[in-house]
Design brief:
With 536 residues, this protein is of the alpha+beta class. It has helices at 56-62, 119-129, 173-177, 242-250, 263-272, 301-310, 313-318, 343-346, 355-368, 387-401, 414-422, 440-448, 462-472, 477-494; strands spanning 36-39, 70-72, 84-86, 89-95, 100-105, 151-158, 161-166, 204-210, 214-219, 233-237, 256-261, 277-291, 325-326, 378-384, 406-412, 428-434, 499-509, 513-514, 533-534. The strands form 5 sheets. Strands 11, 12, 13, 14, 15, 16 and 17 form a 7-stranded mixed sheet that branches. Strands 1-10-9-8 form a 4-stranded mixed sheet, with no helix packed on it. Strands 4-5-7-6 form a 4-stranded antiparallel sheet, covered by helices on one side.
């Protein structure tokens, strides 16, 4: 066991970072208490355990129950390291040349079952996520384990102090801890309980969960942020059909709707109910093509290149995305993101050129690989059985047909989708990928690192892995950006996971909904909902 060594003199405690707790979203009105807000999420949640899941649907529906050590300020539109604020931590400090991150915790926090929150819960949570040898819990599925592989030890020297000791400096650790995917779990509650239940410290307590139908929360009267939440409760109603969702919000059965909608869906909803407020934001989610590197004929680079070139990115923008997307590589494009490739380079990526010329090149590559009119390439194109996925996958079938590829569309239910992708039980797939935060460590380690559970294509490069580690440990921001861009160029050249574009997402809300936070560069870190209130 590594012993705790004091990292600061007494006077230095005052230098710990401290900012106000979760300020109210800007409004000129006095918030009102009461009421239950009803909304419809992207899909049913496979569980209420964010650390074990890979869909924003879980973050949306579980975040009201939990808290993080730190979180992104809901009132600030653009997420960055400068907008991270305390939640369960009161203060934090980088120590020992950025090798240790020290948190001082709140002393007035209770779990929903009345047990006190302490540093033991923090250590338990992240020892479990990083799969430490002496961890007291084990995640059956652990998609973000590699986020935390640089942690050497987590120490809890007293009930209200936690120290993350790192092998090397890692500036991304704090942003990753602020993600909606990084809540603190109670050490005293069996992990299996989070399949259908939730015991957290958050602003809302679970009232009832009927999987596939609805999740209902009630106000936590012991919440540590005084005066919050404003609502008496939250209800997530599962409505799978988009037209039914639109009708439900138009009739007033839903207060907010739209996760997973395209621009036309939101505009159609508003046409039928003009008082609805339309909202649009970059989602930090990309539409990408998974090509199974482990299965023939996709082991042939020419076949992978042909598929990539066949997909006209500008046609994608005006077709399934209806103008609401930006082009980029593996990292969120500018201006919403800060780590993406320069715009001039993005314009030269596969699929961004003249559609006729690129489709001709795709047919040539297929012919070289042994495929043509008398022997067409045939495969199953898999996608998740959600409209926002199926829209783009259907467009892909048509694009592939134009170069002689016969693709048969297969729709897979949410509960099965991620396990099948993890096991590489597919040929080619249309996927939507978001990691929660705009940081290279989150995106690269999770989706491109050899052996990662979220590396759904089976792509593996020792050179890329080495560069990933190098950029992660680079403290100079300009030097880190240069390394990240170098990695991105190589990933695009390899066709590791062809990116069609980074889609925007759309919502509508009735004017009586106030304080509904919406960030301009992520949909993952705004779902606590403690500041929402109803003006009615």
């Amino acid at each position: 066991m590594v012993r705790f060594r004091p990292l600061w003199p007494l006077a230095a405690v005052t230098a710990l970072i401290a900012v106000p707790l979760l300020p109210l979203a800007a409004t000129s009105q006095t918030p009102k208490y009461g009421g239950v807000l009803v909304t419809s999420p992207l899909s049913a949640a496979p569980s209420l355990s964010p650390h074990e899941e890979s869909t924003v649907a879980v973050v949306q529906q579980a975040s009201p129950c939990f808290n993080n050590l730190v979180y992104y300020d809901p009132a600030k539109k653009q997420e960055s390291v400068d907008t991270i604020i305390p939640e369960l931590a009161e203060k934090w400090s980088w120590q020992d040349g950025n090798r240790n991150l020290v948190f001082l915790l709140r002393r007035d926090v209770k779990w929903h079952d009345g047990k006190p929150f302490t540093s033991a819960d923090v250590k338990y949570t992240f020892d479990m996520v990083r799969a430490a040898p002496d961890a007291k819990g084990r995640l059956k599925v652990n998609p973000r384990k590699l986020w935390y592989e640089n942690i050497e030890a987590i120490e809890a020297p007293d009930p209200y102090t936690v120290v993350f000791r790192l092998k090397k400096p890692q500036p991304a650790l704090l942003p990753m801890l602020a993600s909606g995917y990084s809540p603190i779990y109670p050490a005293h509650v069996p992990l299996a309980d989070f399949k259908n239940k939730c015991v957290g410290t958050g602003p809302f307590k679970l009232k009832e969960n009927k999987p596939g139908e609805y999740i209902e929360y009630v106000k936590n009267p012991d919440y540590f942020v005084k005066g919050r939440p404003y609502l008496d409760g939250l209800k997530f109603v599962i409505i799978r059909d988009r037209s039914t969702q639109i009708a439900a919000v138009q009739s007033g059965q839903l207060d907010v709707a739209g996760s997973g909608w395209n621009r036309t869906n939101a505009e159609d909803a508003k046409k039928g109910a003009p008082k609805l407020v339309l909202m649009e934001a970059d989602s930090n989610v990309n539409d990408n093509v998974l090509i199974n590197f482990k299965k023939a004929p996709f082991t042939d680079r020419r076949v992978r290149q042909a598929i990539n070139l066949a997909l006209d990115r500008k046609g994608y923008l005006v077709g399934p995305r209806q103008g609401a997307a930006t082009f980029g590589g593996a990292l969120l494009p500018r201006p919403a993101g800060v780590w993406g490739l320069p715009t001039a380079e993005v314009a030269k990526l596969p699929g961004m050129g003249d559609p006729a010329k690129q489709k001709a090149e795709a047919r040539k590559l297929l012919a070289e690989a042994g495929f043509g009119p008398s022997n067409p390439l045939k495969f199953t194109l898999s996608t998740r059985a959600l409209s926002i996925y199926v829209d783009t996958a259907s467009w892909m079938v048509d694009q592939l047909q134009q170069v002689g590829i016969e693709a048969t569309l297969e729709q897979i239910e949410t509960g099965v989708w991620h396990p099948k992708m993890t096991r590489l039980e597919y040929q080619v797939a249309l996927n939507l990928t978001g990691v929660g935060i705009d940081d290279p460590d989150a995106q690269l380690f999770e989706n491109y690192r050899c052996g990662s559970q979220r590396n759904f294509s089976g792509y593996c490069s020792e050179e890329i892995d080495r560069l990933m580690v190098e950029q992660s440990q680079t403290l100079d921001r300009a030097k880190r950006l240069a390394l990240v861009n170098e990695i991105d160029r190589k990933l695009q050249a390899d066709g590791a996971r062809p990116i069609l574009g980074w889609g925007k997402q759309h919502w509508v809300a009735w004017p009586h909904v106030k304080g509904w936070a919406l960030h301009e560069n992520s949909i993952y870190n705004v779902s606590r909902r403690q500041d929402v209130w109803l003006d009615k």
